[in-house]
Amino acid sequence: MKQIADLQDTDLQTLHRDVQAEYDAFRARGLALDMTRGKPAPEQLDLANGLLSLPDNRDHHSEDGVDARNYGGLQGLPEVRALFSTMVGAPPERIVVGNNSSLAIMHDCITWALLKGVPGAPTPWSQGPTPTFLCPVPGYDRHFAICEDFGIRMLPVPMTGQGPDMDEVERLVADPTVKGMWCVPKYANPTGEIYSVETVRRLAAMRTGAPDFRLFWDNAYAVHHLTDRHHAIANILDLCETANHPDRAFLFASTSKVTLAGAGLAFFASSPANVRWYLERAAKRTIGPDKLNQLRHVRFLKNEAGLLRHMEAHRALIAPKFEAVTSALEQRLGGTGVAQWTKPDGGYFISVDGMAGTAKRVVELAQKAGLALTPAGSTWPYGRDPDDRNLRLAPTYPPLKDVRIASEGIALCILLAAIEKTLLSSR
Amino acid sequence: MKQIADLQDTDLQTLHRDVQAEYDAFRARGLALDMTRGKPAPEQLDLANGLLSLPDNRDHHSEDGVDARNYGGLQGLPEVRALFSTMVGAPPERIVVGNNSSLAIMHDCITWALLKGVPGAPTPWSQGPTPTFLCPVPGYDRHFAICEDFGIRMLPVPMTGQGPDMDEVERLVADPTVKGMWCVPKYANPTGEIYSVETVRRLAAMRTGAPDFRLFWDNAYAVHHLTDRHHAIANILDLCETANHPDRAFLFASTSKVTLAGAGLAFFASSPANVRWYLERAAKRTIGPDKLNQLRHVRFLKNEAGLLRHMEAHRALIAPKFEAVTSALEQRLGGTGVAQWTKPDGGYFISVDGMAGTAKRVVELAQKAGLALTPAGSTWPYGRDPDDRNLRLAPTYPPLKDVRIASEGIALCILLAAIEKTLLSSR
After folding, report:
1. Is the pLDDT of residue B272 over 80?
2. Which of A341, A424, B88, B197 is the most buried (most CB within 10 A)?
3. Least CA distance to A101: which residue of chain B?
4. How far is residue B344 from each of residues B38, B94, B227, B341, B395, measured CA to CA in Å?
5. Where are the alpha helices (DSSP H) in A255-358?
6. For the residues B250-257, what does the mean pLDDT come to?
7. CA of A73 to nearest chain B CA: how many angstroms apart?
8. What is the ipTM score, two decimals?
9. Residue B427 has pLDDT above 80, yes or no
10. Could you tell me if A372 lies within 8 Å of chain B, comparing CB atoms?
């Protein structure tokens, strides 16, 4: 198909009529499909149903004889920290196991940094000038929501295909009010990007204006591969240590998209000083996490090989859904020049950049056709996409046949919005 | 036995020799017993072992068809809120179910009040003058630790047998910097006191200088009876509403000492405005709590009758331990005038007031004899008991025979410390 931009007005109007008719027909089907959130499908959760009757009555003690039913064990059971050590990217003694939400751990690190400060902080963040976070875009809306909620200023940084634009990052972190940066280093949400070794090295080595600057390293998709290429990223903790910035990185991970989304384990990992800091703060908040759920995970996954086998089973269920989306987009939009989209090797999202100024309209058109999409702009700080262009598609939850239908509909909406936009601007 | 204070010097010295000899003999036994924390015994946890294989693979959906394995459900499953409604003292729609720690919910309410303010707050607490909390004493060390950690000033208020001294409380809350008050209204930690209807009514009705004053109502022992007298307390939410202070009380409760100490459910309850506030804040922190653990609790306890039966089984296990402590104290210290102690109808602690200026020495003597006691002063803000008198005994965890031995040893230490003190002051 010809590039929309190259079409004569009359051809464009003809195309508009045809595509509008297709859209009306699609809309007439009265569908109700949801592609808004990165939520595992029931079949994916079924893979972990073994957890539902564990640890069972026969054995509720940890390897070192701790009764997992009682209070205590703030850092988490040693065997759990060992099992997830590679996934988290830290040795067991630098890992803390929390309850079911890594977002909660990130939130707590920010509230504690604001009220108490982090190791090396001249003052708590709330007592200095308004703190700023760097936010690679497009990014994760829930990261941005925490910053917005606590009045932390957010500066967007463009992604390059190798991770964030490091020249820009190095320029911005010179400002001492820049206290942190959100990073999803592997299969990033939503672009699927993988930070290159060079990007990670520069993040670890760069000079920051703030002595208490922290990388919020949300490695949410460490083992969430969609292809045979199991990409690895450089170890941020090691590189920070080498660069004499041992306390720079806060690592976060969880099993929400490994075992059970609502009943997984979350992890914090960092330098010895940061881990001491975290445990000291956490000790004021709780006597300990749910150790029975930790035992459940060890009994069920058994070891790292078991974890990786489990992730292969996920891949078998969701890779076809990602394929369905990208092929529908290719089929409908290939050659039109109205959109680019990612073909991620892992993670939970496909990121689509439509024609500038059309994202809101696409979501509106989709909504009228019974397709729920994440609000346009939600991948940007404050929900403001300056180009009104980025769309985040989450194909994991609906059944494959629905993903196919929804993707055709979304492609249609993207095309229709682009034609409308072109017609307007050619007037 | 004669009151120590009435003894002649020579009799006192004789007694000192005898008691010292007894103590040395006790110490020679080289025991290692722990009465420091209110921790359920393994036998108590066994009562809830049914949870360890639930919800099982057959049914992981809530009554309204929600898949408890997946994300969401921030407020908690309706059937869980219904099951614990009476225990918590609020209708289901005013209850929020958290993960395994009510302390964590209290901590979060304080961090959010500091950073964001509560409904009706002119500013976040951290942006006004140093906030102050009233702390009935003796009280719960972990409450005080949160305040100390965040620089919240603490003012002790004496307990009266009916709850805190309300004349004093009403006088102090006139100060607008007094933003909160810790309350354990039933079977209080550590005195076992039960707030009278009049006390609760006055707390609800009193005029506070701060428009955003909050009662932190930690009803940790609502169903934790040790006798046939199942004491009830007045409903603080209702009374606050009647007194036109509907948003005054934050309620907290948990099943840590009902089902499993490390894997229970925690609850927040309050007015509609406060619940909206809490959910709005919590939504930034997590996508939802562990709903599978909620289902476990419903499947296991079934209904309120099941909950109360379960608590009766606890009572059968721990009431004899409380009896062992009080009878050992009575036998050894009765008539000596050196100590008073509580005989609680519920809860987890026995509070002992020894002779002024001896508590630290008692803990030291006990420690040397292999008896671990909670540090003297820990029931007071900043760990400072001005009279160095109060001791908190936690008899639930050790086996009954150990509780007997430990109690005899503790009584001996209390007596010896009192004799030493009297000898010194008589010099």
Report:
1. yes
2. B88
3. B286
4. 14, 30, 9, 9, 12
5. 272-285, 291-301, 304-333
6. 98
7. 9
8. 0.97
9. no
10. no
